[in-house]
Design a protein that fits this description.
Largest sheet: 4 strands, mixed
Order of helices and strands: EHEHEEHHHHHH
Bound molecules: glutathione
Number of helices: 8
Structural class: alpha+beta
Number of domains: 2
CATH architecture of the largest domain: Up-down Bundle
Number of strands: 4
CATH class of the largest domain: Mainly Alpha
Strand order of the largest sheet: 2-1-3-4
Length: 187
């Protein structure tokens, strides 16, 4: 089983944590943008090879892992929606980050201002939605992977929020999360 990805990607990190959690033995193949462009039609990481099956998205990978574990994957509609909201914010934030490297900023492009606002409104909504629910599911782990990446890349600061402020502390108590911080390459 081969997981292709980067050590800094929050999508890849979620998969690595789930696969460790499931006790799956896998080879991690560090893959840059050029390699993902040649090897996956999505031109993104992660992608996973399992016995001739190629999964090209972190969500299909996570579903496969959880089913392999005999665990439900986001079976509750509320949890599924929270997961999708995190994904939308994360896609927008990664998009902003990559475009900034190309010299494009929200101040210059109206659609990027919308992307920036989307990240903010989603974080505000998630702060309320996670108030009443536990953080241990894949929705909570998705949020932790996103917030950790956002801090690492200086994109958002969860400490300014109520519930969101405690998410990283909660997940940092788990060895598989603590050992996969984007600032710890190679682990
Ligand atoms: N929907 C994908 C998104 C993955 C994604 O955006 N990965 C980023 C790395 S953090 C990437 O490969 N970006 C390259 C690009 O956008 O060209 C998933 O959940 O796996």
């Amino acid at each position: 089983m081969k997981l292709h990805g980067s050590y800094t990607s929050p999508y890849v990190r979620h998969c690595r944590i789930a696969m460790r959690d499931a006790g799956l033995a896998f080879e991690f193949i560090e893959t840059d943008n050029g390699q993902s462009a040649r090897q996956s039609p999505t031109q993104r990481v992660p992608f996973l090879d399992i016995d001739g099956l190629r999964l090209t998205d972190s969500t299909s990978i996570l579903r496969w892992v959880r089913e392999h574990q005999g665990r439900p994957f986001l079976a509750d509609p509320g949890a599924f929606d929270r997961y999708l909201m995190v994904n939308t914010a994360m896609d927008a934030a990664v998009n902003l980050f990559l475009l900034e490297r190309d010299g494009l900023r929200p101040e210059d492009v109206p659609y990027l201002a919308r992307q920036r606002d989307r990240v903010r409104t989603i974080l505000e909504a998630l702060d309320l939605r996670f108030q009443a629910v536990g953080l241990d599911g894949d929705d909570g782990l998705r949020l932790a992977c996103f917030l950790s990446w956002a801090m690492f890349r200086d994109r958002a600061d969860p400490t300014g929020y109520g519930t969101l402020g405690g998410v990283l502390e909660h997940w940092d108590a788990r060895p598989e999360f603590a050992a996969t911080h984007p600032g710890l390459p190679g682990r």
